[in-house]
Amino acid sequence: MTTEVSRKEEKVARVEDLPVYVPPADVYETPDHYAVLIDLPGVAESDLELSLEEGVLRISGVRREPHEAQGRLLVEEWEPCRYQRSFRLATDCDTGKIEATLRNGVLTVTIPKTETARPRKIPVKAE
Amino acid sequence: MAFELVPWRRRRQSELAWSRGGNPFLSLQREIDRLFDEFLEDFGPSLRWPSLRRRGRTWGVMVPNVDVSETDQEIEVKADLPGLDEKDIEVTLDENVLTIRGEKKEEREDRRRDYYLMERAYGSFERAIPLPGNIDAGGITARFRNGVLTVRIPKTGQEARSGKRIPVKTG
Description:
The complex is a heterodimer.
Chain A: H1 2-13, E1 20-21, E2 25-29, E3 33-39, E4 48-53, E5 56-63, E6 72-75, E7 81-88, E8 99-103, E9 106-112
Parallel strand pairs in A: 1-7
Antiparallel strand pairs in A: 2-3, 3-9, 4-5, 5-7, 8-9
Chain B: H1 24-41, E1 57-58, E2 61-62, E3 66-70, E4 74-80, E5 89-94, E6 97-104, E7 114-118, E8 123-130, E9 141-145, E10 148-154, E11 164-166, E12 168-170
């Protein structure tokens, strides 16, 4: 049991050695934007990275969070890890206006659609 | 929108002191996950499909992941509760059983939303963690931060009394 805990602590020391998990996500579209919601429990804002490259939105977060009690592990259902997920954005995304918020362990990324892609009413003129 | 394949690490098949006596459905789910992993492993890395194995969830039902650790001074319980507010979490101690309850409300009522992926879990959940007798019920603290609930239970030499609600703090 003690080797179990020390293995966990070692892993915290080197981020690149942490196991990689694919966090669950919700993705939806509305008439004027797309939204991506990802569960990232235990990830601090400073350990979260978002990047956009060649139309691919990449989200990676590190869950460090060592056990404060530093004792014997009785139940282990999660571990320090890296969360990674990427999404290819649709061509009608306005990539300059992407917004991201992290709250209570959930990342919400809002991607507005370009002006031309949004639905709009065309006024009809009477003659 | 496409999501890419990222290989995930096979879970250690370690024997942990309490985990076998937990939620039988969760144990079954984990066993199925493990068999899936082993089955897919035979095909090599190209066939590992992460979404087949959804950690901490039993097909859409919220079953939070919990870690329990112990030192000579205290027991620490950590539960993954992403997307909940501290006011939606209830922590109680009764008959030396620590119970974590909560409900994550459905946010998907909006009809203008067309979903591509719906993997996150919603609904109510409850997990009960049996504790030893020598705990200080009055000294229990609960903190909620970044979607993780941490409950710390100091140990004493005395037997604990029953029926206590523990306030959850943020930060």
